[in-house]
Amino acid sequence: MRIYPRYIASASPHVRPDDLATCVSCGLCLNDCPTYRVMDDEADSPRGRIQLIREMVATSARPQASTVEHLEACLVCRACETACPSLVPFGRIMEGAREEIALRSRPAGLREALRARLVDLVTRPTLLAFIARVASLYERTGIGRVAQRVLPRRLARMESLLPAPEGAPFVPIPRPEAGAQLLAGCVMRAAFGDTQRATVRALERSGFTVGSPADQECCGALHAHSGLGERARELARANVRAFAGMGTVVSTAAGCGAHTRSYGWLLADDPAVAEAAADLSRRVRDASEVVTAVGAPLPRGVRVVYQDACHLAHGQGIRKPPRDLLRMLSGVELIPIADPERCCGSAGTYNLTHPEVATELQRQKAGAILAARPDVVVSANPGCILQIRAGLEAAGADVPVVHLMRFLDDPAAVLSSQA
Questions:
Q1: What is d(CA 179, CA 248) in angstroms, rounded to the nearest whole number?
Q2: Rounded to an integer, what distance in angstroms lies between the CA atom of residue 286 and that of residue 380?
Q3: Residue 414 is part of a domain; what is its CATH number?
Q4: How far apart are CA 128 and CA 140, in angstroms?
Q5: Strand, coil or helix: what is 250?
Q6: Which candidate among 135, 182, 265, 280 keeps its CA 20 to 30 Å from the CA of 360?
Q7: What is the C-alpha to C-alpha distance for residues 98 and 225, in angstroms, rounded to an integer?
Q8: Which domain holds residue 412?
Q9: Cα within 13 Å of Cα(25), Cβ side
Q10: Helix (H) or strand (E) holding 172
Q11: Dihedrals φ, ψ of 182, to 5°?
Q12: Cα angle value 318/95/351 (rounded, 5°)
């Protein structure tokens, strides 16, 4: 690969020259990049992708197909940001580059248009709740076990990632005066209703009154990752209005929390909402940062693996609070795993768009977890939970995988329900 100048003008309003200039191509990110480790191609490393972006934004031409392929192969896990001594804002650069690709590729082909429509399904909670109910029926009737045997490999993989919903969908209850305001989410609201209700109970035990605006929208993270920048900003504006003037905004999904915390810069050029967006970003907290009380102690020792979600560890720098909460539970033995911050391969829709790489990362993560011999795996992101659950099942292991908040609320009930 050619090495392009570090300082380069940008013909794109979405990729900032000063952001690109922070990368000095030192290569310290390489070993921490999951796709580089799997694909062993410089163009699929963080510094390689930044060089491709520099070349792309130096002109206003339509990007080459190979450039698009390498940029879309990125998980945007942001592990490179943790490794980088120059503090390169890689996630911001990549989201801007993908928006630029989408704009320059118009008119979009059928594949791109369908992908945009599919991504936007997450903004429709009623439809997601219906899909979750169908998935529950599908699971209970045993059709899924048959499907795994008869479906083609790619479809069988997609089937394995269907979320079996936890109880009824979560219904936001507005309490504008409440000190904690729950970010309901899209998949969390539809398929992880028990987790959201457990979070409310955990917050109340910790001394908070809890509300959740009825008019909140999907956070827009999947849209931003997919290059649908204007739609992502539209959703962000709606949430800025929905949470205006309220207290701490609590997230239970690592990706949602990381993206909502970015609203300040996402809407910085919109004078109508810039100040309110920055205020909302400052008020967002992961649930593990806010909850201080846990459920009843366990009657026996339980080996627990805590899986670091990328957008919690790398995107928000949150590693210690979830582990501290788990250690507060009597009877919990927190078991470390090898390479704990390596991406599991979920990354929003990545496990559907790039199944080969996602499957290899899933296999590696499942192997590391099984080597620790846990009784339960705990994580703080719905995509990670579904990806790891499917990976452990593929490895023939019957280890429950649950959300941190649900486990903390009533660990004995969680373990008995998974038995």
A1: 6
A2: 9
A3: 3.40.50.10700
A4: 18
A5: strand
A6: 135
A7: 7
A8: 302-418
A9: 15
A10: none
A11: -80, 125
A12: 75
Per the CB < 8 A criterion, the answer to whether 187 and 163 are in contact is: yes
Identify whether 42 is part of a domain.
yes
Biggest CA–CA distance in the chain, Å, is 64
**Residue 308 and residue 326: Cα distance in Å, rounded?**
13
User: How far apart are the two ends of the chain, measured CA to CA in Å?
Assistant: 52
Q: How many other C-beta atoms can be found within 10 angstroms of the C-beta atom of residue 277?
A: 25
State how far the alpha carbon of 198 is from the alpha carbons of 35, 170, 256, 286, in Å.
Answer: 35, 10, 18, 14
pLDDT value, residue 104? 87
Mapping DSSP to helix (H, G, I), strand (E, B) and coil, where does residue 251 land? strand
**H/E element, 254:** helix 254-260
Is 91 among the domain residues? yes
Number of domains in the chain: 2
Domain's final residue, options 104, 121, 149: 104
193 assigned to some structural domain: no
What pLDDT is attached to residue 13? 87
Residue 171 within a domain: no
Determine if residue 213 is left, alpha or beta; phi over 0 gives left, psi from -120 to 50 gives alpha, anything else beta. beta
What CATH number is associated with residue 71? 1.10.1060.10
The 8-class DSSP code of residue 30 comes to G
Tell me which residue of 290, 234, 293, 241 sits closest to 266, measured CA to CA.
Answer: 234
Block residue for tokens 């919109």: 270
| pLDDT at residue number 150 | 44
Element at 168 (helix H, strand E): none
Sequential pLDDT tens for the chain (419 residues): 444 455 566 678 899 999 999 999 999 999 999 999 999 999 999 999 999 999 999 998 999 999 999 999 999 999 999 999 999 999 999 999 999 999 888 766 666 666 777 777 767 777 766 666 666 665 555 555 544 454 445 545 555 556 667 888 999 999 999 999 999 998 899 899 999 999 999 999 999 999 999 999 999 999 999 999 999 999 999 999 999 999 999 999 999 999 999 999 999 999 999 999 999 999 999 999 999 988 888 878 899 999 999 999 999 999 999 999 999 999 999 999 999 999 999 988 888 889 999 999 999 999 999 999 999 999 999 999 999 999 999 999 999 999 999 999 999 888 887 65
CA angle 124–126–129, rounded 5-degree value = 110
Under DSSP, is residue 342 helix (H, G, I), strand (E, B) or coil? coil
